[in-house]
Each structure stands twice: as C-alpha cells, then as structure tokens.
Structure to design on (98 residues):
C-alpha cells in the first residue's frame, strides 16, 4: 500500500475503498480555504456498494499549522484528514471507567 507511507498522497479512491470496507457512507468535507476546484471535487458523499450501517462517517480535510503557515490562504492544501463528530456522537464516560 503505497499511500500508507510518509510523504505519499491519498484521495477519493481511497475514501471510496474505505466506505466499501466499513459498509458505511463517507462524507468528505474540504474547508473554505484554497482552490474552489478542490472544494468542489473533495466535498461529497461516497456510498459503498453494500450499505451495512446507517451511520455516515464524516471526514474533514485538514492541515498542520506548520503546513498552513508555509502558504498563502489562496493556495492552501490539506495534508491529512480528521474525523468530524456531531454533538449526538459524543458519549459520556464515567471517570471510573477510565
């Protein structure tokens, strides 16, 4: 797996493969920074061939502060993704369980 190594890239094909593996839709969100072309292409919902879960995984394209500081906002690009969670996804954990 070439994309599993440092300094390699991944994209929508890998998200689509992940959606098929987990059986859940993946909603990819590209922020309002950088090129509008990237935002249009990378903000979309990817459906697996066989949906086995009604939960949608939402991933936000993001960048480290060091990466972001190296370029003007108009040229911003992501260098990783992070999960996005809604308030309904939060689970209260009792401190005795930790």
């Amino acid at each position: 797996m070439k994309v599993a190594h440092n300094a390699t890239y991944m994209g929508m094909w890998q998200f689509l493969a992940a959606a098929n593996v987990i059986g859940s839709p993946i909603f990819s969100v590209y922020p309002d920074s950088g090129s509008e072309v990237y935002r249009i292409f990378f903000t979309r919902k990817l459906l697996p061939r066989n949906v086995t879960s009604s939960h949608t995984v939402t991933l936000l394209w993001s960048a480290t502060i060091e990466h972001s500081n190296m370029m003007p906002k108009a040229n911003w690009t992501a260098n990783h993704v992070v999960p996005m969670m809604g308030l309904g996804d939060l689970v209260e954990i009792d401190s005795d369980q930790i």
